[in-house]
Fold this sequence. Notes:
Number of domains: 3
Number of helices: 11
CATH class of the largest domain: Alpha Beta
Number of strands: 13
Order of helices and strands: HEEEEEEHHEHEHEHEHEHEHHEH
Largest sheet: 6 strands, mixed
Amino acid sequence: MATKDKLDKVLFSYTTQNNQLEEENQTLKEYISRLEEELKHLKTPSLMVCDVASVIDKNQAVIHIPNGNKFLCHIASDCEPLKSGDQVLVEQKNLNIIRKAPITKKFSVEQFVIMEKPKQTWSQIGGLQDAILEVKEVIELPLLKPQLFKKIGIQPPKGILLHGPPGTGKTLLAKAVANSTQATFIEVVGSELVQKFIGEGAKLVKDIFELAREKAPAIVFIDELDALAGKRMEIGTSGEREVNRTFMQLLAELDGFKPLANVKIIGATNRKDILDPAILRPGRLDRLIHVDVPDEKGRLDIFKIHTKNMKIAKNIDLKKINEKMEEFSGAEIQAVATEAGYFAIRENRSAIKKDDLLQAIEKVRRKSEEEDENLSFFG
Length: 379
């Protein structure tokens, strides 16, 4: 009996070990299979992303490769129907189209633009009443009441150009009108549109305007427009020629817009004098709005806006303080309020004294003079 028990134990032990070995063997087979599959993927040649310029027939198409060259290539039999403008995956060796690329049209745009619903309102802008009135007439009214223009029979401008010194409120005006019209605000810096590869800048401009149409009502705000729309030269470097190509695409997009469409363009620059006349001709950014440093009343309005939540000593003569900020821009007046607050914080006070404001004005003025000296040195 004891011998039989021992035999049963040995058989049970062998059976258990055998099952464990089989499980380990199965696990190893699955692991090897995954490695083989991964190795197969790694050995598969990469596919290049290209744009379809035109479709000849169901078997052939002309494509744009990333360096700007065009090629006539064959289309795989199982590829879905293509049209001009589609993005496709192409075999790198023979440039044959394998399939349509599963990539959204604006995949390359999002890293270059800021898209938001601004919260700034007209009440947060001081000293720019004339500019506000013009922006409302040209941008706000056509978006909110297009029927008025249709009844009168006139075409409102497609866009405006805000020009003037830095820090005077050009971006704030654009955001406020986007807020008042509930429009999507698409902000892009002109220098960001200039890319190092041929054709990329022009495609980026095209994608931005397509994005604006999709998100309409929308306002496209192009800051530092002079970086893109400077006066063109007949002979230049390859980089300058690429800037010209991007600029021409911008002009083409402006010409393609209907005046009463629910997309408006706002350009901003500190150097209107170097802009190419083509961008300013009628039918493009033909309404020019000068945003200058505020006058005495404007400075006081801006100062009150930025200090409305601050505790300021009652014995301060704001008129005299305002006189000392002559020629200050809106951004510099805001900086004065901020710096005065810091002076109070350093002395552990909650109220702003006259000395805080005077020191803040001196600090902001000194910083502005240093920046001017640097600009004149490098300019």
